[in-house]
Amino acid sequence: MTEQRRPGLSRRQLVKYAGVGATFVASGAAATSGSAWAQDDDDRTRHGDSRNRSWRAGDHHVHSEYSGEFDTSVTPPRFHKGADAVYPIVTNAIMAKHFGLTWAMCTDHGGPTHSKVNLELAYPDLLRSRQLVPEVLQFWGMEFDTPKLDHHTLMIPRHDDEAKQLFELESRFAKFDAFPTDPARDTEAKMIEFLKAAKDMRDKPLVIAHHTSRSATGLGVYGQDTPREFRNGNNIAPEIYVGFEGAPGHQAAPLNGGARGGYGNHPTYGGYDQMTARVGGLWDSLLGEGRKWWITATSDSHVHWTRGGADFWPGEYSKTYVLARQDYGDIMDALRNGRIFVTTGDLVTTLDLTAKGRGREAMVGETLMLSRRDRNDVEIEIRFRPLQGKNGNGERPEVRRVDLIVGNVTGVNANLDADTNPTTKVVARFGPRDWRRQGSEYVIRHTLRNVEQDLYARVRGTNTDELEPLADGKENPWTDLWFYSNPVFVRVS
């Protein structure tokens, strides 16, 4: 692979800033012959989009060497880099670019007084990485030590005071930032206080839950993260607290004998969290209330599996695609408003889901408005583009089936612990004989007849023969690939 670097930057300087990543790329060790990750904008542009938006792959959960450790035997605690994750920020950016990402986010762990580490040490390195790898828009934020819950992405909008904004939120609300530890920070009341403060900020951040069932002990037997807490947080700040990881990171763990996703208590299903993978489960329960609650897919990269870790590089295996311009604000707007699909193993590179009726149409994240006075047939159109080259495993995966999933929207559930939507069903399954080719895309159409009540539709697909994703064991993750759209809503009034 030809080394890419900015004009005027020597190889020695690149290696200095990029560390192992520059050596990795320059040596060609990560290159795959014939790869087609980097497609031009014309090839990625959504059919018919007039706002110059295209599907752009990214990752909002990536760790750097600033996920370290603290020596608390001294005051203030002394920080040591590289104890948990090992790569410089710019290494992750280089590898993200190599694997076809156009945006990414540094999300390091917190700890006692970590807010100062972020402000004084990590943020200057992010600024240097933005200069060295401008092709990847690099957001600032952290893996937030969420009060009462497991970790979450805290994503800060790009603006001149972004570092101060993160410092304010982390120093005030992260449950482990105080030294000595303050038990009052680890309460649901503190989480609600944090969300209210975030909601009142001029530059509004995003909060997305991580590996939500990693501490669950069974199917529907939840651990740190519960349906009640998701509902309460989304009720307080619906434009801030917008979703969870559908496909958690650490997907390479089985390659070194571990559990996929690090889910050692209860497994993932096809690489996806049970809250997402179970049809009619928690995600569908939230959507059935009409909540704008989205899923993403991330690497959670700490240490690459070839160095004994459990991870793939950013973009190597999991991708979160957003329909957006190559602009910080528009990418964040797409995440906030559900213009998202996710995939593993580069099974698809575009996925458009559209609901049409009465001369109107809506796509993922949007709502199609219909009148109850009319006889409403809703046409669902699915368009997807398979990978044109080879993925990170040197293969060109094939989509074997696409499922259309539909559930009713019945309004807010009085039971905050509800985790099922019994109306949600797979209403149609499609194989290669059911789709037709249009250029480089495949198109599927299906009509929902006599729609008389509010509903949502979402799509998933796979390279397997499994009708429902099976509980994961130690299988090679490259053999078990799935993609999921976010929903499109239909409202009949």
From TrEMBL:
It comes from the Bacteria. Residues 35-60 are annotated as: Disordered. Coiled coil: none annotated. Residues 43-60 have a biased composition (Basic and acidic residues). This is Phosphoesterase. It comes from Kibdelosporangium aridum.
